[in-house]
Amino acid sequence: MQRLLILFAALCLGAPLARAGEEPPAEPGPLGKIHEGAKKALRDLGIEVYGHFKLDSSRDTSETNFGDTAFYVKNYGSGEKDEEINITARHTRLGLNWKGGEDRGINAIGNIEFDFLGKAIQKNSETQELQPAVRLRHAWMKFDFGGGWSLLAGQTWDVFAPVNMKKLNTMVGWGQGNMGFRRPQLRVSKKFPLDEGTDLTVDFAIARPVARDSTKLDDDSQDDGEDSGIPDLQAHVGLKIPFLGKKPLKTGVGGVIGWREIGGGGVHLRDDVHYKTWAVCLDAVAPILENLDLLGELWTGKALDGYRAGVWQSFVVHDHEVHIIRAWGGFANLVWKPAKHWMVVVGYGVDNPEDSTFHGEDGRYENRTVFGNVRYCFYKNATVGIELDRMETDYRDDKNRVNYRIQ
Protein backbone atom coordinates (compact mmCIF):
# COMPACT_ATOMS: atom_id res chain seq x y z
CA MET A 1 0.00 0.00 0.00
CA GLN A 2 2.85 2.41 0.85
CA ARG A 3 4.40 1.88 -2.58
CA LEU A 4 1.10 2.59 -4.30
CA LEU A 5 0.61 5.78 -2.28
CA ILE A 6 4.13 6.95 -3.19
CA LEU A 7 3.50 6.16 -6.86
CA PHE A 8 0.14 7.96 -6.86
CA ALA A 9 1.66 11.04 -5.20
CA ALA A 10 4.49 11.14 -7.72
CA LEU A 11 2.12 10.91 -10.67
CA CYS A 12 0.06 13.76 -9.23
CA LEU A 13 2.96 16.04 -8.30
CA GLY A 14 5.42 15.16 -11.06
CA ALA A 15 9.20 15.36 -11.05
CA PRO A 16 11.16 18.06 -9.12
CA LEU A 17 10.55 21.45 -10.71
CA ALA A 18 13.23 24.06 -11.52
CA ARG A 19 13.30 27.20 -13.58
CA ALA A 20 15.27 27.22 -16.81
CA GLY A 21 18.96 27.67 -16.12
CA GLU A 22 18.79 26.89 -12.42
CA GLU A 23 20.90 24.14 -10.89
CA PRO A 24 18.97 21.43 -9.06
CA PRO A 25 19.31 21.54 -5.27
CA ALA A 26 22.23 19.61 -3.82
CA GLU A 27 19.87 17.72 -1.51
CA PRO A 28 16.55 16.50 -2.89
CA GLY A 29 13.57 18.41 -1.55
CA PRO A 30 10.17 16.89 -0.69
CA LEU A 31 9.19 16.49 -4.35
CA GLY A 32 12.58 15.00 -5.14
CA LYS A 33 12.17 12.40 -2.41
CA ILE A 34 8.74 11.49 -3.74
CA HIS A 35 10.17 11.23 -7.26
CA GLU A 36 12.98 8.90 -6.16
CA GLY A 37 10.51 6.87 -4.12
CA ALA A 38 8.22 6.53 -7.11
CA LYS A 39 11.08 5.32 -9.32
CA LYS A 40 12.04 2.72 -6.72
CA ALA A 41 8.39 1.64 -6.39
CA LEU A 42 8.14 1.22 -10.14
CA ARG A 43 11.35 -0.81 -10.25
CA ASP A 44 10.13 -3.04 -7.43
CA LEU A 45 6.86 -3.61 -9.29
CA GLY A 46 8.75 -4.42 -12.52
CA ILE A 47 7.23 -1.44 -14.35
CA GLU A 48 8.94 0.75 -16.96
CA VAL A 49 7.19 3.90 -18.20
CA TYR A 50 7.77 5.04 -21.80
CA GLY A 51 6.14 7.08 -24.54
CA HIS A 52 6.56 10.15 -26.73
CA PHE A 53 5.16 13.61 -27.20
CA LYS A 54 4.44 14.18 -30.89
CA LEU A 55 3.30 17.12 -32.97
CA ASP A 56 2.34 16.54 -36.61
CA SER A 57 1.74 19.28 -39.14
CA SER A 58 0.80 18.48 -42.72
CA ARG A 59 -0.40 20.26 -45.84
CA ASP A 60 -2.19 18.47 -48.69
CA THR A 61 -2.95 19.73 -52.18
CA SER A 62 -6.14 17.59 -52.23
CA GLU A 63 -8.56 16.43 -49.58
CA THR A 64 -7.65 13.04 -48.10
CA ASN A 65 -9.30 10.52 -45.83
CA PHE A 66 -8.36 11.42 -43.08
CA GLY A 67 -6.39 14.66 -43.04
CA ASP A 68 -4.31 14.07 -39.92
CA THR A 69 -3.41 10.56 -41.07
CA ALA A 70 -4.01 10.36 -44.81
CA PHE A 71 -4.89 6.99 -46.36
CA TYR A 72 -6.16 7.86 -49.85
CA VAL A 73 -7.22 10.84 -51.94
CA LYS A 74 -10.93 11.58 -51.96
CA ASN A 75 -12.83 11.64 -55.21
CA TYR A 76 -13.76 15.30 -55.55
CA GLY A 77 -15.83 14.68 -58.69
CA SER A 78 -16.03 17.49 -61.21
CA GLY A 79 -15.21 20.15 -58.60
CA GLU A 80 -11.85 21.70 -57.84
CA LYS A 81 -9.20 20.16 -55.63
CA ASP A 82 -9.49 21.33 -52.03
CA GLU A 83 -6.22 22.07 -50.26
CA GLU A 84 -6.06 21.46 -46.52
CA ILE A 85 -3.76 21.81 -43.53
CA ASN A 86 -3.74 19.76 -40.34
CA ILE A 87 -1.89 20.18 -37.04
CA THR A 88 -2.39 17.65 -34.28
CA ALA A 89 -0.81 16.31 -31.09
CA ARG A 90 -3.14 13.31 -30.83
CA HIS A 91 -0.39 10.88 -31.80
CA THR A 92 1.28 11.48 -28.44
CA ARG A 93 1.72 8.07 -26.85
CA LEU A 94 2.14 6.63 -23.34
CA GLY A 95 2.88 3.09 -22.26
CA LEU A 96 3.96 0.72 -19.51
CA ASN A 97 6.19 -2.34 -19.81
CA TRP A 98 5.93 -4.92 -17.04
CA LYS A 99 8.34 -7.70 -16.06
CA GLY A 100 6.83 -10.23 -13.72
CA GLY A 101 9.92 -12.37 -13.23
CA GLU A 102 9.99 -16.14 -12.86
CA ASP A 103 7.43 -18.24 -11.05
CA ARG A 104 7.38 -22.06 -11.22
CA GLY A 105 9.61 -22.01 -14.26
CA ILE A 106 7.47 -19.49 -16.17
CA ASN A 107 8.58 -15.94 -17.06
CA ALA A 108 5.97 -13.27 -17.71
CA ILE A 109 6.03 -9.84 -19.32
CA GLY A 110 3.25 -7.42 -20.25
CA ASN A 111 2.54 -4.17 -22.03
CA ILE A 112 -0.18 -1.53 -22.11
CA GLU A 113 -0.02 1.44 -24.48
CA PHE A 114 -2.44 4.15 -25.55
CA ASP A 115 -2.63 7.35 -27.57
CA PHE A 116 -5.31 10.00 -28.10
CA LEU A 117 -6.81 9.18 -31.50
CA GLY A 118 -9.92 7.83 -29.80
CA LYS A 119 -12.87 6.15 -31.59
CA ALA A 120 -13.44 7.17 -35.22
CA ILE A 121 -11.44 10.07 -36.61
CA GLN A 122 -14.09 12.69 -37.29
CA LYS A 123 -13.21 15.15 -40.02
CA ASN A 124 -13.74 18.85 -39.24
CA SER A 125 -14.64 18.08 -35.61
CA GLU A 126 -13.32 20.65 -33.15
CA THR A 127 -14.28 18.45 -30.20
CA GLN A 128 -12.38 15.49 -31.62
CA GLU A 129 -9.22 17.52 -32.22
CA LEU A 130 -9.14 19.77 -29.16
CA GLN A 131 -10.67 17.33 -26.67
CA PRO A 132 -9.55 13.93 -27.96
CA ALA A 133 -10.43 10.55 -26.47
CA VAL A 134 -7.96 7.92 -25.31
CA ARG A 135 -7.40 4.97 -27.68
CA LEU A 136 -6.02 1.62 -26.55
CA ARG A 137 -3.18 0.40 -28.78
CA HIS A 138 -1.68 -2.53 -26.88
CA ALA A 139 -2.75 -4.49 -23.81
CA TRP A 140 -1.19 -7.95 -23.49
CA MET A 141 0.65 -10.45 -21.32
CA LYS A 142 3.15 -13.00 -22.57
CA PHE A 143 4.19 -16.16 -20.73
CA ASP A 144 7.49 -17.87 -21.62
CA PHE A 145 7.35 -21.55 -20.66
CA GLY A 146 10.89 -22.41 -21.74
CA GLY A 147 12.01 -24.61 -24.59
CA GLY A 148 11.02 -21.90 -27.07
CA TRP A 149 7.30 -22.05 -26.17
CA SER A 150 5.33 -18.92 -25.29
CA LEU A 151 1.71 -17.79 -24.97
CA LEU A 152 0.46 -14.24 -25.56
CA ALA A 153 -3.01 -13.05 -24.55
CA GLY A 154 -4.35 -9.57 -25.25
CA GLN A 155 -4.36 -6.91 -27.95
CA THR A 156 -1.30 -6.33 -30.14
CA TRP A 157 -0.09 -6.51 -33.75
CA ASP A 158 -1.43 -9.09 -36.19
CA VAL A 159 0.79 -12.14 -36.56
CA PHE A 160 0.85 -12.61 -40.31
CA ALA A 161 2.11 -9.19 -41.59
CA PRO A 162 4.78 -8.01 -39.11
CA VAL A 163 6.55 -5.23 -41.10
CA ASN A 164 5.38 -1.59 -41.28
CA MET A 165 6.30 1.31 -43.57
CA LYS A 166 8.79 3.81 -42.16
CA LYS A 167 6.53 6.82 -42.72
CA LEU A 168 6.22 9.92 -40.58
CA ASN A 169 2.49 9.58 -41.24
CA THR A 170 1.31 7.61 -38.21
CA MET A 171 -0.89 5.33 -40.33
CA VAL A 172 2.25 3.75 -41.88
CA GLY A 173 0.86 3.20 -45.37
CA TRP A 174 -2.35 1.31 -44.67
CA GLY A 175 -4.41 1.18 -47.83
CA GLN A 176 -1.23 2.08 -49.74
CA GLY A 177 0.52 -1.30 -49.75
CA ASN A 178 0.91 -2.04 -46.07
CA MET A 179 -1.54 -4.36 -44.33
CA GLY A 180 -2.28 -5.71 -40.85
CA PHE A 181 -3.30 -3.91 -37.67
CA ARG A 182 -3.73 -4.55 -33.93
CA ARG A 183 -6.52 -6.66 -32.48
CA PRO A 184 -7.38 -8.89 -29.46
CA GLN A 185 -5.89 -12.36 -29.86
CA LEU A 186 -4.60 -15.51 -28.22
CA ARG A 187 -1.22 -16.42 -29.70
CA VAL A 188 1.00 -19.49 -29.33
CA SER A 189 4.63 -19.28 -30.47
CA LYS A 190 7.47 -21.77 -30.78
CA LYS A 191 11.11 -20.86 -31.55
CA PHE A 192 13.36 -23.50 -33.10
CA PRO A 193 17.14 -22.78 -32.87
CA LEU A 194 18.61 -24.18 -36.09
CA ASP A 195 22.23 -23.08 -35.92
CA GLU A 196 24.36 -20.45 -34.23
CA GLY A 197 22.46 -17.19 -34.72
CA THR A 198 19.77 -18.86 -36.86
CA ASP A 199 16.19 -19.24 -35.58
CA LEU A 200 12.90 -20.43 -37.03
CA THR A 201 9.80 -19.07 -35.28
CA VAL A 202 6.23 -20.32 -35.78
CA ASP A 203 3.28 -18.23 -34.53
CA PHE A 204 -0.40 -19.13 -34.52
CA ALA A 205 -3.20 -16.87 -33.27
CA ILE A 206 -6.95 -16.92 -32.75
CA ALA A 207 -8.05 -13.30 -33.30
CA ARG A 208 -11.15 -11.16 -33.07
CA PRO A 209 -12.84 -11.01 -36.50
CA VAL A 210 -13.12 -7.22 -36.86
CA ALA A 211 -14.72 -6.33 -40.20
CA ARG A 212 -16.95 -3.80 -41.90
CA ASP A 213 -20.49 -3.35 -40.67
CA SER A 214 -22.66 -3.51 -43.77
CA THR A 215 -25.45 -1.53 -42.09
CA LYS A 216 -26.78 -0.27 -45.42
CA LEU A 217 -27.43 -3.85 -46.44
CA ASP A 218 -28.64 -5.68 -43.34
CA ASP A 219 -29.71 -2.91 -40.92
CA ASP A 220 -28.49 -4.92 -37.89
CA SER A 221 -25.62 -2.60 -36.83
CA GLN A 222 -23.52 -5.69 -36.14
CA ASP A 223 -19.96 -6.12 -37.31
CA ASP A 224 -19.92 -8.69 -40.13
CA GLY A 225 -17.00 -10.50 -38.48
CA GLU A 226 -18.78 -10.83 -35.14
CA ASP A 227 -21.92 -11.88 -36.98
CA SER A 228 -20.09 -14.93 -38.37
CA GLY A 229 -19.63 -16.44 -34.92
CA ILE A 230 -16.12 -17.69 -35.83
CA PRO A 231 -12.76 -16.09 -34.90
CA ASP A 232 -10.10 -15.30 -37.49
CA LEU A 233 -7.09 -17.64 -37.72
CA GLN A 234 -3.63 -16.19 -38.28
CA ALA A 235 -0.21 -17.81 -38.70
CA HIS A 236 3.36 -16.81 -39.52
CA VAL A 237 6.65 -18.65 -40.05
CA GLY A 238 9.73 -16.46 -39.70
CA LEU A 239 13.42 -17.14 -40.31
CA LYS A 240 16.29 -15.11 -38.84
CA ILE A 241 19.82 -15.79 -40.08
CA PRO A 242 23.18 -14.01 -39.62
CA PHE A 243 23.95 -11.72 -42.51
CA LEU A 244 26.01 -8.56 -41.95
CA GLY A 245 27.89 -8.64 -38.70
CA LYS A 246 25.36 -8.12 -35.91
CA LYS A 247 22.52 -7.38 -38.35
CA PRO A 248 20.47 -10.48 -39.26
CA LEU A 249 18.33 -11.13 -42.32
CA LYS A 250 14.69 -11.63 -41.31
CA THR A 251 12.15 -13.10 -43.69
CA GLY A 252 8.84 -14.88 -43.36
CA VAL A 253 5.50 -15.93 -44.79
CA GLY A 254 2.16 -15.44 -43.08
CA GLY A 255 -1.51 -15.91 -43.69
CA VAL A 256 -4.97 -15.23 -42.32
CA ILE A 257 -8.42 -16.67 -42.93
CA GLY A 258 -11.72 -15.44 -41.54
CA TRP A 259 -15.45 -15.79 -42.01
CA ARG A 260 -17.99 -12.99 -42.48
CA GLU A 261 -21.78 -12.78 -42.56
CA ILE A 262 -24.14 -10.13 -43.90
CA GLY A 263 -27.60 -10.58 -42.43
CA GLY A 264 -30.42 -10.92 -44.94
CA GLY A 265 -33.98 -9.74 -44.73
CA GLY A 266 -33.21 -6.13 -45.55
CA VAL A 267 -34.12 -3.98 -48.52
CA HIS A 268 -31.13 -5.08 -50.60
CA LEU A 269 -30.66 -8.74 -49.62
CA ARG A 270 -33.33 -11.37 -49.06
CA ASP A 271 -31.02 -14.02 -47.58
CA ASP A 272 -27.89 -14.07 -45.42
CA VAL A 273 -24.62 -13.77 -47.34
CA HIS A 274 -21.57 -15.67 -46.11
CA TYR A 275 -18.10 -14.89 -47.43
CA LYS A 276 -14.45 -15.37 -46.45
CA THR A 277 -11.54 -13.02 -45.94
CA TRP A 278 -8.06 -14.38 -46.53
CA ALA A 279 -4.55 -13.20 -47.29
CA VAL A 280 -1.05 -14.55 -47.85
CA CYS A 281 1.86 -12.23 -47.08
CA LEU A 282 5.63 -12.38 -47.66
CA ASP A 283 7.82 -10.11 -45.52
CA ALA A 284 11.51 -9.32 -45.29
CA VAL A 285 13.98 -7.03 -43.51
CA ALA A 286 17.31 -7.31 -45.32
CA PRO A 287 20.51 -5.43 -44.44
CA ILE A 288 22.36 -4.28 -47.56
CA LEU A 289 25.16 -2.38 -45.83
CA GLU A 290 25.96 -1.72 -42.19
CA ASN A 291 23.92 1.49 -42.40
CA LEU A 292 21.42 0.58 -45.15
CA ASP A 293 18.40 -1.74 -44.91
CA LEU A 294 15.70 -2.86 -47.34
CA LEU A 295 12.35 -3.88 -45.90
CA GLY A 296 8.91 -4.63 -47.26
CA GLU A 297 5.93 -6.89 -47.80
CA LEU A 298 4.10 -8.48 -50.74
CA TRP A 299 0.58 -9.84 -50.31
CA THR A 300 -2.60 -11.01 -52.01
CA GLY A 301 -6.08 -11.83 -50.74
CA LYS A 302 -9.83 -11.10 -50.63
CA ALA A 303 -12.20 -8.97 -48.51
CA LEU A 304 -9.39 -7.21 -46.65
CA ASP A 305 -10.81 -3.94 -45.36
CA GLY A 306 -10.64 -5.28 -41.78
CA TYR A 307 -6.91 -5.70 -42.31
CA ARG A 308 -6.35 -2.20 -43.74
CA ALA A 309 -5.98 -3.45 -47.32
CA GLY A 310 -7.97 -3.49 -50.57
CA VAL A 311 -7.99 0.31 -50.14
CA TRP A 312 -10.40 -0.34 -47.24
CA GLN A 313 -12.95 -2.30 -49.32
CA SER A 314 -14.26 -5.87 -49.04
CA PHE A 315 -17.20 -6.09 -51.43
CA VAL A 316 -19.55 -4.25 -53.76
CA VAL A 317 -23.24 -4.88 -54.45
CA HIS A 318 -24.12 -5.31 -58.13
CA ASP A 319 -27.60 -6.31 -59.33
CA HIS A 320 -28.56 -7.11 -55.71
CA GLU A 321 -25.66 -9.56 -55.37
CA VAL A 322 -22.59 -9.21 -53.17
CA HIS A 323 -19.28 -9.48 -55.03
CA ILE A 324 -16.09 -9.94 -53.01
CA ILE A 325 -13.15 -7.71 -53.91
CA ARG A 326 -9.81 -9.40 -54.58
CA ALA A 327 -6.65 -7.35 -54.16
CA TRP A 328 -2.89 -7.52 -54.13
CA GLY A 329 -0.23 -5.08 -53.02
CA GLY A 330 2.99 -4.45 -51.20
CA PHE A 331 5.65 -1.93 -50.36
CA ALA A 332 9.42 -1.51 -50.23
CA ASN A 333 11.45 0.92 -48.10
CA LEU A 334 15.13 1.80 -48.12
CA VAL A 335 16.32 2.97 -44.69
CA TRP A 336 19.70 4.72 -44.64
CA LYS A 337 21.48 6.01 -41.54
CA PRO A 338 24.32 8.15 -42.95
CA ALA A 339 25.42 9.48 -39.54
CA LYS A 340 24.72 8.91 -35.87
CA HIS A 341 21.79 11.32 -35.56
CA TRP A 342 20.37 11.09 -39.11
CA MET A 343 17.96 8.73 -40.88
CA VAL A 344 16.74 8.89 -44.50
CA VAL A 345 13.88 6.78 -45.87
CA VAL A 346 12.55 6.42 -49.42
CA GLY A 347 9.68 4.12 -50.30
CA TYR A 348 6.95 3.00 -52.66
CA GLY A 349 3.68 1.20 -51.97
CA VAL A 350 0.68 0.02 -53.98
CA ASP A 351 -2.72 -1.41 -53.00
CA ASN A 352 -4.48 -2.74 -56.09
CA PRO A 353 -8.00 -4.20 -55.95
CA GLU A 354 -8.79 -6.14 -59.12
CA ASP A 355 -10.99 -4.04 -61.41
CA SER A 356 -13.15 -6.98 -62.53
CA THR A 357 -14.38 -7.64 -58.99
CA PHE A 358 -16.10 -4.23 -58.89
CA HIS A 359 -18.43 -5.19 -61.79
CA GLY A 360 -18.40 -1.55 -62.90
CA GLU A 361 -19.56 -0.19 -59.54
CA ASP A 362 -18.02 2.87 -57.87
CA GLY A 363 -15.00 2.28 -55.68
CA ARG A 364 -11.30 2.91 -55.18
CA TYR A 365 -9.65 0.90 -57.92
CA GLU A 366 -6.01 1.47 -56.89
CA ASN A 367 -3.97 3.50 -54.42
CA ARG A 368 -0.25 4.32 -54.62
CA THR A 369 2.33 6.25 -52.63
CA VAL A 370 5.87 7.41 -53.38
CA PHE A 371 7.50 9.12 -50.43
CA GLY A 372 10.73 10.15 -48.76
CA ASN A 373 11.56 11.50 -45.34
CA VAL A 374 14.55 12.80 -43.39
CA ARG A 375 14.85 12.72 -39.59
CA TYR A 376 17.40 14.40 -37.36
CA CYS A 377 17.86 13.82 -33.64
CA PHE A 378 18.79 17.33 -32.46
CA TYR A 379 18.54 16.63 -28.71
CA LYS A 380 18.61 13.45 -26.68
CA ASN A 381 15.38 11.58 -27.45
CA ALA A 382 14.04 14.49 -29.54
CA THR A 383 13.71 14.26 -33.33
CA VAL A 384 12.49 16.57 -36.07
CA GLY A 385 11.55 15.24 -39.50
CA ILE A 386 10.08 16.22 -42.85
CA GLU A 387 8.28 13.98 -45.33
CA LEU A 388 7.21 14.48 -48.95
CA ASP A 389 4.52 12.07 -50.15
CA ARG A 390 2.82 11.74 -53.52
CA MET A 391 -0.45 9.81 -53.23
CA GLU A 392 -2.60 8.76 -56.18
CA THR A 393 -6.00 7.10 -55.93
CA ASP A 394 -7.77 5.71 -59.02
CA TYR A 395 -11.54 5.72 -59.38
CA ARG A 396 -13.93 4.37 -61.98
CA ASP A 397 -13.63 5.65 -65.57
CA ASP A 398 -9.92 6.49 -65.16
CA LYS A 399 -10.57 9.30 -62.69
CA ASN A 400 -7.19 9.52 -60.96
CA ARG A 401 -6.91 11.84 -57.95
CA VAL A 402 -3.43 13.02 -56.96
CA ASN A 403 -2.32 14.59 -53.68
CA TYR A 404 1.05 16.03 -52.75
CA ARG A 405 1.61 16.01 -48.99
CA ILE A 406 4.31 17.68 -46.94
CA GLN A 407 4.43 16.63 -43.30
What distinguishing features does this structure have?
10% helix; mainly beta; 407 residues; 18-stranded antiparallel beta sheet; two-stranded antiparallel sheet
Describe the model.
- The chain is mostly beta strands and 407 residues long.
- Helices cover 10% and strands 52% of the residues.
- The chain is built from 5 helices and 22 strands.
- It has an 18-stranded antiparallel β-sheet.
- α1 (2-13) crosses α2 (30-45).
- The chain starts with a helix and ends with a strand.
- The relative contact order is 0.11.
- The model is unreliable at 4-26 (pLDDT under 50).
Oligomer: single chain
What amount of the residues lies in strands? over 45%
Shape: globular
- First and last CA, distance: 47 Å
Total beta strand runs: 22
Biggest sheet layout: 18 strands, antiparallel
- List segments where confidence is low: pLDDT < 50 over at least 5 consecutive residues: 4-26
What structural class do the secondary elements suggest? mainly beta
Cα-atom radius of gyration? 24 Å
Number of helices: 5
Mean pLDDT: 87
Output the helix-strand order: HHEEEEEEEHEEEEHHEEEEEEEEEEE
- Percent of residues in helical segments? 10-25%
